[in-house]
Amino acid sequence: MAWRVARCLEVLREQFNDAFPDRSTASDGGIGDAAHASRSSDHNPWHKVGGIGVVTARDFTHDPANGMDIDRLTDELAASRDPRIKYLIANGLILDSRPGNNPWKWMPYTGANPHRKHFHISVVPELCDDDRPWNLPSVNTAPKHATEVDELTPEQDHMLRDIAQQLTGSRNAGEFPGWPSMVDGKTTLTPVDFIRFIDKHVVQLRAELGAMSETVRTLAGAIAGGNDFDADELVSRVAETVRRTIADATVNVDVNVQHGDGGANV
Hints:
By secondary structure, the chain is of the alpha+beta class. It has helices spanning 7-19, 34-37, 70-80, 137-140, 154-168, 191-224, 231-248; strands at residues 3-5, 47-49, 52-55, 57-61, 85-90, 93-96, 106-108, 118-123, 179-180, 188-189.
């Protein structure tokens, strides 16, 4: 007999697959096996649409490590009060939407399979092909995995190339020519190169000042001999003078990126 799964359940499966692409499907199921076929079960294609049997139930595997937490997902389904839901089973509990069955309340499930490795959803036959997306907050807000890259507009492309030129000296990807240094014309620098160059030399300068302090201390001691002379005071004054000299020095970096020609002065 020809059969298919209800369209609304296929929509639910696609939502889970899109949101949690690495989820396990080990306990997923649509149409029932021989054991299901021998009893009344929505896993059997008993509902007919256009002469084709429709399975109105699906199972979805519990895989919390990859987003498929059946406690959270069945609670979200229950909270949605979606009229397509007939009943849900998960972790030894059942929620039935139909009158006379404690509608929309979780109740103990006494069936042989407590459904701890997957959850079961049955849908109302008359609404089984309603293919609207299901209202599941944790699914609808899950990060989507990119499947394609949108084309850049000419304006966006131009803007990105302007930024690349300012940082690298070139408007072409993968090129880092920089600009000739005004101090040493044989050296080319990008703004990043320049910042790293300054940072490196500040470290070197600190080391040199430390060495100079030791030299001055030794010299002061030799000059003082046995006299009452404070070598540390002399070192402190020399170091302070050096610091003031550095602080008063001004380094002007004038980078002018000219539109289109990559020209700049460093």
